Fold Transcription factor CBF/NF-Y/archaeal histone domain-containing protein.
Amino acid sequence: MAEEEKTESHRPSFPSTRVKKIMKLDQDINKVNSEALFLVSHSAHLFLQFLAQKSAEIAIEKKRKTVKLEHLRIATKKHQPTNDFLLDSLPMPSPVSTRPSTTQSRPGPAAEKPLPVGTRRIDQFFKSTNEAAEDANSA
């Protein structure tokens, strides 16, 4: 009885059909064995768990409550095997804004943007044809 409890089967944490589809994206793979599918799924789970744990540690070191892309990049840089294949795939962090997001201004008025050929603005639609022609000639 004790042996049966130790050998219980584990369900993979990722949907096996999706993992199988991803594996089959490689043109050299035609069929996927159930054991291989389980191992790849479990390996991906362990890798993501490791990466999340290291990123969380970096966030805690920086006294943050939320793990951000910069924490993930730092964790990737610190672990050489992960750095070798993953760092180039991670997006670059966006530049830090010095202004608060609430005070950012909206883009300039729409009149400053050039119109695509054959289009007109909604305010020109309601003007008489003479006024619209004058506006188009002045622009």
About this structure: Helices lie at 2-6, 16-23, 34-61, 69-78, 80-86, 122-126, 129-138.
